[in-house]
Design goal:
This protein is mostly helical. It has 14 helices and four strands. The chain has two domains: 95 residues, no CATH class; 178 residues, no CATH class.
Length: 295
């Protein structure tokens, strides 16, 4: 079993196809490095004697056709390259969705947050979505979300539902109705610990920053999470537009240009939240995608 198998990023069908490609390349005389030393030797050979790819190997269909020829050797029936390509693409698509997709990695990240905030009674769908948004925009981890200006702040509930569904199938966590508040709460699954290494790989060098963010958000109730994430997103959008906004402009963007329900929150609470963000260095840098209005 190779390293990719151990990390769970490929399934057996993909590995078999990968092996066929390697075998076809080897039969054509290609050198496929498998160790660091192999790579060094290959680089040295290329430096000393550059080579060019033969014309019959420049088209990837040549490799696919060679594999197709091997699919039915006894019947001498060739599988059309287009058909084989579509089958392979479908297979790879399934692999990415299950173990290599952003939904898989986000589900693992959710599990990491749920495990870290196991005693947080406020950790529901709204709070975890705000933590995810700030992790993406403040800590620099691209979760490929498409957040909108919702009443609860910047949210991408469409992808969140997919993430939660996948996490449930992996037995990492599940959702149930909260008892003492509106919404849902997260229940750790029997295999939640299996998600933690995946989450750590997803965070990579940003893990320390994420841990600081999670601890910063730990004592916040749902409303404060909404306010902080909305202020952050509104402020970031202004920076993306080339503005150098004042506090008043940031709060106006977050309250008046976001969602009508934001006006129900007293202005003084927005002011305190903005001061709290600056005190804890939760300040945007004008990166990422703007958060458009929900339609």
């Amino acid at each position: 079993m190779n390293d990719l198998d151990k990390s769970g990023s490929r399934d057996l069908k993909f590995d078999r196809f990968d092996e066929k490609i390697h075998q076809a390349l080897k039969e054509e005389g290609a050198i496929i490095p498998t160790t660091v030393e192999d790579v060094r030797r290959a680089k040295a050979r290329l430096t000393a004697r550059p080579v060019t790819v033969p014309p019959h190997l420049r088209n990837p269909d040549a490799i696919l056709k060679k594999i197709a020829d091997q699919e039915c050797p006894k019947a001498n029936v060739l599988v059309p390259v287009a058909t084989l390509r579509s089958k392979v693409d479908a297979s790879c698509s399934n692999v990415r969705h299950k173990k290599g997709s952003i939904f898989f990695r986000r589900a693992a990240f959710d599990a990491y947050v749920i495990h870290a905030l196991a005693d947080d009674e406020n950790l529901g769908r709204t709070k975890i979505e705000k933590i995810t948004h700030l992790t993406e925009y403040h800590c620099g981890i691209d979760f490929e979300r498409e957040p909108l200006r919702d009443a609860a702040g910047p949210v991408d509930y469409r992808s969140r539902r997919k993430v939660e569904s996948l996490a449930s199938k992996q037995h990492w966590y599940s959702t149930v109705d909260a008892e003492n508040r509106w919404g849902v709460k997260y229940v750790p699954g029997p295999k939640i610990l299996e998600a933690l290494p995946i989450a750590k790989r997803t965070m990579g060098i940003h893990k320390a920053a994420v841990d600081v963010l999670i601890e910063l958000m730990r004592p916040l109730d749902t409303t404060m999470c909404e306010i902080a994430a909305t202020l952050y997103a509104a402020w970031n959008d202004l920076l993306l537009a080339g503005d150098a906004p004042t506090d008043e402009k940031i709060m106006r963007e977050a309250r008046e240009n976001w969602h009508p329900k934001k006006l129900r929150i007293p202005l003084e609470r927005w002011k305190r939240a903005l001061d709290w963000m600056k005190e804890h260095h939760l300040v945007p840098r004008g990166i990422g995608k703007p958060v458009p209005p929900a339609h």
